[in-house]
Known about the structure:
By secondary structure, this protein is mostly helical. 56% of the residues lie in helices and 0% in strands. It has helices at 4-17, 25-49, 53-56, 60-63, 66-70, 86-90, 95-106, 109-114, 120-140, 162-173, 178-181. The longest helix has 25 residues, at 25-49.
Amino acid sequence: MSTEQPGLLRRSWAALRRPSAKFTMLGLLSIGFVGGIIFWGGFNTGLEATNSLEFCISCHEMRDNVYQEYKQTVHYSNRTGVRAICSDCHVPKDWTHKMIRKSKASFEVWGKLTGSIDTKEKFEARRMTLATHEWERMKDSGSRECRNCHSFEAMSADVQKQSIYKKHMKGKEEGKTCIDCHKGIAHQLPKEYRDPDEG
């Protein structure tokens, strides 16, 4: 049995390296090209499916906690009808950064498997840690995902209240990024971070 295996491997490798008698080089390249398109289409479709709101809230940890908070914010319901979903804020748009983020997010499945935040109490106990990780990620990227929709250059002094406009322009001059001032914009702040008067 063991002497047959190397022979089988050698024969298989030789068959793979042998020129095809049935297909031309153009035919093989065409098959590879079409196969590549089908693979890429399937991969990209699957990747985009993981960016949907339905996918994000398919586990009760998200649906029962942060999703409920998000539904009370201006990112969910507002006068213009523009809605930012989870992936708009948590997944980069460009391919390279998106793949890096998706790779890191795959490790978050461990939390689901181990049940580290599977109850409201466990989630609240870890909220500060979870929020801090996300704030650091946003700070490191210069709030890249926020800037997909918001831009200092597009802010109008005529439309924004003057006090808010001045704060934004001061933040721009100081090199601040959105997350420096807007923590808790779509989700509740951790109790360790809240003003004691807020409870």
